Amino acid sequence: MSRLRSTRTGGGLTVAEAIRAAAGRLSETSDTARLDAELLAAHLLGVSRAEMLLRHMRDAAPHGLAALVERRAAHEPIAYLTGRQEFYGLPFIVTPAVLIPRGDSEVLVEAALEEKPDARRVLDCGTGSGALLLAVLSRLGEAQGVGIDSSPAALEVAARNAEQLGLRPQARFVEADWHRAGWAGGLGQFDLILANPPYVETGAELDPDVRDHEPASALFAGTDGLDDYRVLVPQLPGLLAPGGVSVVEIGYRQAAAVRAIGSGAGLTAQLRQDLAGRDRALVFRVC
Ligand code: GLN
Question: Up-side HSE of residue 258: CA atoms within 13 Å toward CB?
Answer without folding.
Answer: 35
